[in-house]
Write a structure and sequence with these properties.
The complex is a heterodimer of chains A (431) and B (262). By secondary structure, chain A is an alpha+beta fold. Chain A is built from 16 helices and 14 strands. In chain A, the strands form five sheets. In chain A, strands 8-7-6-11 form a four-stranded mixed beta sheet. A three-stranded antiparallel beta sheet of chain A has the order 1-2-3. In chain A, strands 12-13-14 form a three-stranded antiparallel beta sheet. The longest helix of chain A has 32 residues. In chain A, 60% of the residues are buried. Chain B has 262 residues and is of the alpha/beta class. Chain B has two domains: 148 residues, 3-Layer(aba) Sandwich (Rossmann fold); 93 residues, no CATH class. Helices cover 39% and strands 10% of the residues of chain B. Chain B contains twelve helices and five strands. In chain B, strands 2-1-3-4-5 form a five-stranded parallel beta sheet. The longest helix of chain B is centred in the C-terminal third of the chain and has 15 residues. The chains are: A alpha+beta (431), B alpha/beta (262). The interface between A and B is large, with 67 and 62 residues.
């Protein structure tokens, strides 16, 4: 009988929030895998009760400092759905532009500062900058461009102040956005140049058979619109979410695990979007994917780095086009009557689908709130990936196995603050 | 690696946004990493150097018994402790639980409340340990964060002004949204630092930076009531990311009384 091995990561690094991992491997088989989220609970759904419907974009943004726009978009949509307010196309375009800013900033942060160091065996971006100063410089410029876009459209990079139910408080002026166009264009070129470099990395072998879940729209790569679809046949409007998905509470985690009721764990995020919505990518993103040999299906979670690179190009390319065509809307927001109702909202945060549901009373006060963040949805799937990785983990030297397991978690760009609204990594070998 | 003073970044209950502000200093982050030794910053690096630390940046509020023990250790190991953001300086929006029944919240959010360990109250760092500098905001302003680090490097006082948002609005030449439009605005009692963002986007300040020094919430009560906002709306206006700050508690009380006297 082989000796049992204990690999422990008590505080997972280069993720947003606090989590730990325990993997118990014996004879090349995972005996136990627990992604534990010890980030303290913050009870958002509890204290949203009794708040006014107009307050949700500002309050729910604070669930996550990395993807506040996702919270603002999903919550506004849910309220507009409850109230029957229809947001016209020019304001939808402006929302998409703000969301492009968050995708650019978040993907550049994760790809180059949090994930790429794993592939090159360095601890952090500071060490990466000593090896490859030119790429880190480009990455920081791309990231800054995303942040600038959020600042102009949203008022500031973290927790934007310009988003309201029905639209925006003030539409940006043409000149404000036009000034950013050169940086958007040069960032697009940098992202296109970086992808072939990222493709030279060694990607560990792992093929998975996830159920993929994403928003899907016939004409656009998913951000805010479309149906909720899965690789296993789900295709429903946002309001169908409760029929097909549920959250379960596990003893080892302060985050709820979301599952497909009929089948169990599923995968949401860039890999799901890329595999199910490839056709709606723009020409620039498709050309870059082809250049590095990235095709559908792509079911190796480590290649999420490249998929994010394709999405980064998509977001920059879209932002260039929206800014170039931008004309300020006639009104920055729409309003209508306030009445009781229930509404559903969903959008694609950089790390996956984010679902919100609210019920409000006749005064517009919230009586019930449900928020299902992407990392809560991916938590079970991350554990499944680690089980699938067990044979590799058993043969690698302990230190390398620990690092590989961490890297497998980081494939998901997990946002733990979100998930407790939610991470700790401990790795044990059974004895 | 830098030979400069060592820096630790520590997270308690929060959204990660304030420490992200450091990574958002795209033009300066590599220079910062040369000037200080980043010894413990899990969000950015796997490498962890054990304490003691010259400077600790602390984000988040204390909400669990385990976190309180962790905080006491951070204080013991750190020469200078700087709290960053509204969670650390005022308890954050999660302090809304302080006036509520936490058992009820736990039942609302979690199917198995018995799995959840949490304290009754969300409290600011200064309630438990000595804090050397406080940096306000939800989120902090990254320029102010850089200035605090620079000040500590050079042994000078940080250049942070305690005046209200109103002053920043006047300096920016923004028309007063409270006077001109009757929009409820906490700018007169809120700590400066954001650059008076909200009024420049045609909305009232909602108090992200918490109370200014000597915030005169009593003097603002009249104009707020005259804006036509209902008392419960004004209570909620004071009840967000700095809900537990004493001056904003007073603002909530006055708003409630304003409702009672009508």
């Amino acid at each position: 009988m082989s000796e049992a091995r204990t690999i422990k990561v008590d505080y997972l690094a280069r993720v947003e929030g606090e989590g730990a991992l325990t993997v118990v491997v014996k004879d090349g088989v995972a005996q136990d895998v627990r992604l534990s989220i010890f980030e303290p609970p913050r009870f958002y759904e509890g204290f949203l009760r009794g708040r006014g419907f107009r307050e949700v974009p500002d309050i729910t943004a604070r669930i996550c400092g990395i993807c506040p726009v996702a919270y603002q978009m999903s919550s506004c949509q849910a309220m507009e759905d409850a109230l029957g307010w229809v947001v016209p196309e020019p304001l939808q375009r402006l929302r998409r532009l703000l969301y492009c800013g968050e995708w650019i900033e978040s993907h550049a942060l994760h790809m180059f500062m949090l994930h790429a160091p794993d592939f090159l065996g360095v601890q952090d971006v500071v060490a990466l900058a000593e090896l490859h100063p030119e790429w880190v410089k480009a990455a920081l410029h791309i990231k800054k461009t995303g942040n600038e876009l959020m600042r102009i459209v949203g008022g500031r990079e973290i927790h934007p102040i310009n988003v309201r139910v029905g639209g925006f408080y003030r539409a940006p002026r043409k000149a404000e956005l036009a000034a950013l166009l050169p940086d958007l264009e040069s960032s697009l070129q940098e992202a296109q140049a970086a992808l072939p470099w990222l493709a030279t990395f060694d990607y560990p072998e792992l093929e998975r058979d996830w159920e993929l879940v994403t928003l899907k729209h016939p004409e656009e790569y998913p951000f805010c619109r479309g149906n909720i679809v899965s690789s296993h046949g789900i295709d429903v409007p946002f309001s169908g979410f409760p029929d097909h998905f549920e959250e379960r509470h596990m003893a080892h985690s302060n985050a709820l695990h979301a599952v497909v009721k009929a089948r169990g764990h599923y995968h949401t995020g860039p890999m799901a979007r890329f595999n199910l919505c490839f056709d709606t990518l723009g020409e620039a993103a498709k050309a870059s994917a082809a250049q590095v040999g990235l095709t559908v299906p792509c079911m190796n979670p480590f290649k999420s780095l490249l998929v994010r690179g394709v999405e980064l190009i998509q977001a920059l390319d879209e932002a260039v086009r929206i800014v170039a065509d931008y004309r300020p809307p006639s009104e920055p927001f729409v309003e209508g009557p306030v009445h009781a109702g229930t509404g559903h909202g969903a959008s694609e945060a950089p790390r996956g689908m984010l679902y919100h549901r609210y019920t409000i009373d006749d005064a517009g006060l919230i009586t019930d709130a449900v928020i299902v963040p992407p990392t809560a949805q991916n938590q079970g799937t991350i554990e499944d990936d680690l089980r699938a990785l067990a044979p590799q983990l058993a043969t690698l030297p302990l230190e390398d196995a620990t690092w590989r397991a961490e890297q497998a978690v980081r494939n998901y760009d997990p946002c733990i603050s979100c998930a407790t609204h939610f991470l700790k990594l401990r790795f044990e070998e059974a004895s | 690696m830098s030979n400069g003073p060592s820096l630790g970044v520590f997270k308690f209950a929060s959204c990660d946004g304030c420490q992200l502000s450091l990574l958002d200093c795209e033009d300066e982050i590599l220079a910062v990493a040369k000037a200080v030794r980043i010894a413990n910053f899990p969000e950015a690096s796997r490498a962890v150097v054990e304490g003691p630390y010259d400077v600790a940046l602390v984000e988040g509020s204390v909400t669990t018994a385990h976190d309180l023990q962790r905080l006491l250790r951070v204080r013991q190991e750190s020469r200078v402790l700087v709290t960053i953001g509204a969670c650390a300086t005022a308890g954050g929006i999660q302090a809304l639980r302080n006036a509520a029944d936490v058992a009820e919240y736990t039942r609302v959010v979690y199917a198995h409340p018995e799995y959840i360990n949490t304290l009754e109250r969300s409290t600011p760092i200064a309630e438990h340990v000595k804090v050397d500098y406080e940096l306000r905001g939800c989120p902090v302003n990254k320029r102010q964060l850089l200035d605090v680090l620079l000040a500590l490097l050079h042994g000078r006082k940080p250049d942070i002004h305690p005046h209200p948002v109103c002053v920043e609005c006047k300096m920016a030449g923004t028309t007063c949204v409270l006077v001109a439009n009757g929009t409820p605005c906490l700018g007169p009692v809120t700590h400066a630092g954001c650059g008076a963002l909200c009024p420049s986007y045609a909305r009232g300040c909602f108090g992200c930076y918490g109370p200014a020094e000597d915030a005169r919430v009593g003097a603002l009560a009249g104009p707020l009531a005259a804006s036509g906002a209902k008392p419960d709306e004004l209570v909620r206006l004071y009840s967000t990311f700095n809900v537990a700050a004493p001056a904003f508690q007073e603002g909530q009380r006055l708003a409630r009384e304003g409702g009672a006297s009508k």
